[in-house]
Amino acid sequence: MSHQLISQYYNKVDKLIQFGASRKETSVRNEFYNLLSHYGEKKNLVLVAELPVRGTKGKDVTPDGTLKNVLRLDYGYWESKDESLDLDEEIDKKIKKGYPLNNILFEDSTKAILFQGGEEVIRIDMRKPEELDRILNAFVSFEKPEIRRFNEALEHFQKDIPTILKTLREKIDEEGKKNKNFISVSESFLELCKSVINPDVTMADVREMMIQHILTSDIFNKIFDDPEFHRHNNIANELEKLNSTLFNHSERRNLLGSIEHYYDAINAAAAGIVDHHEKQKFLKALYENFYKAYNPKAADRLGVVYTPNEIVDFMIDSTNYLLEKHFKRVLWDKNVEILDPATGTGTFICNMIDKCPPQYLAYKYKNEFHANDVAILPYYIANLNVEFTFKQKMGYYAEFDNLCFVDTLDNIGALKGVMSN
C-alpha cells in the first residue's frame, strides 16, 4: 500500500478544509486528482482532466478525469462529487446521462464507489487507508475488453507484419519484371519522384511507399471518417493507381486478412475519441507504434518520435512573444510566413490553427502556412490532421494546398502541382 501518498492526501485535504472552511468538491478534488495520478503512473497511465468522451446514449459526456495509456486509449474515468450531495443519487444522474460504466470511479472525498463492467464492484470509506488503496489499485489495474483486444491485436500485428511485408515486397519485385502495365506506371511515378522529391529516390523507395500506403490507408480514412481522402489527395491517388496494377480488391483484402483484427481494434478504439486534439495525439502515437513494428531499424535510426504537444505550445508561444517584442508583429499578421520543413504528423500547423484568431485563419491557411515531409505516412497523417483541425475551428472543410511531399523547401509545391495537372 502507498502509505505515504495516502497520508499526504489526507493531510492536504484536512488543511484545505481547515483553511478554506469548505468541503465542496471544487475545493478538495485537486488533491484526489494528484493521488489518482500517482497511482496511474505506476501502471504507465496518465490522468487527463475534462476530456469529452462518447457516452452510452450516443452523446458526449465529460468526466472529471480520464485515465489514458501511451496510445491515448481510455482505461477508465473518474468523477468527483460534492460531499453535501447524495452520491448514489448523483451516480444515478450520471448513468442516465450516459456516463460509461466499464471502469469509472465516483467519489465525494468521504466515500468512493467503483463500477466495472457495468456493475458496482467496490464501495469504501475513503478515510480507511487500506480500503482507499484497494479501490485505487482496482481502478488503475482494470483492463477494458476493448483495450485487451487492442493489445492482443497489436501483439499479433507485430508477429504477422514481417510475413506480410515479405509477401508484398516479393509481389512488387515479381510484377516489376513481367507486368507491363505496372512497369510503365511505376517508372513514370519514379521519374516524377526523382524530379520533385529527390534525384536519389529509387524503385525500392517507391516500393516502400506503396507498401506503407496499402497497410495504412484504411486506418486513416476510418479514424477521420474521410473515405474520399485517397481520391482527392494527389499523391495518395497516384499510389492508389499504382497499387491497382498489382492487386484487385479481393486480392488486397485476402493479403491483409491476417491483420484485419488490428484494423478493427484501431477503429473500435478511435470510435470513442470525440475530441479532435485527442484524435491527433492518438494517430501520432499509433504512427510511432506502427513504424516501430513495420521497420524497427529505421525507427531507431530516424528517431520516429514526434515533439509533444506541450513543447509545441511553448515553442509557438515563445516565438510569438519574441516576434512581437523585437519586430512589433505577431504570427497572425499578413506577410508573416509560417514554414514547417519537417512537419511530421502536422502538430505545429494544427497548433497554429488552434491559436490563430478565426478572422485571420482563412487567409493564413490558404496563403501563409506551409509544411512538407519526406516520409509518406506522416505526410498522410499531417494532411488529415491539418484539414480536420481547420474544419473543427472554422466549421467548413478546405483542402490544405500548402502541404507537400518533398524533402527540401526549394521543391515546395512542386509535387502537388505536377500531380494535379
What tags apply to this protein structure?
421 residues, alpha/beta, tt1808, chain A, six-stranded mixed beta sheet, three-stranded parallel beta sheet, 11 strands, globular
Cα gyration radius (Å): 25 Å
Strand runs, count: 11
**Global geometry:** globular
Q: Please report the number of helical segments.
A: 18
Number of individual domains: 2
Give a verbal description of the structure.
With 421 residues, the protein is α/β, with parallel strands linked by helices. The protein has two domains: 3-143, Alpha-Beta Complex (tt1808, chain A); 148-420, no CATH class. It contains 18 helices and eleven strands. It has helices spanning 3-20, 25-41, 87-97, 129-141, 145-178, 180-196, 203-223, 229-232, 234-244, 249-255, 260-271, 276-294, 296-302, 309-327, 347-355, 358-368, 376-394, 414-420, and strands at residues 46-49, 53-54, 60-61, 65-68, 74-80, 103-107, 111-116, 119-125, 338-340, 369-372, 403-404. The chain has a six-stranded mixed beta sheet with strand order 1-4-5-6-7-8, with helices on one face. A three-stranded parallel beta sheet has the order 9-10-11. The longest helix has 34 residues, at 145-178. The chain is globular. It starts with a helix and ends with a helix.
Topology:
Elements lengths: L2 H18 L4 H17 L4 E4 L3 E2 L5 E2 L3 E4 L5 E7 L6 H11 L5 E5 L3 E6 L2 E7 L3 H13 L3 H34 L1 H17 L6 H21 L5 H4 L1 H11 L4 H7 L4 H12 L4 H19 L1 H7 L6 H19 L10 E3 L6 H9 L2 H11 E4 L3 H19 L8 E2 L9 H7 L1
Parallel strand pairs: 5-6, 9-10, 10-11
Antiparallel strand pairs: 1-4, 2-3, 4-5, 6-7, 7-8
What is the compact description of this entry?
The chain has about 425 residues and is an alpha/beta fold.
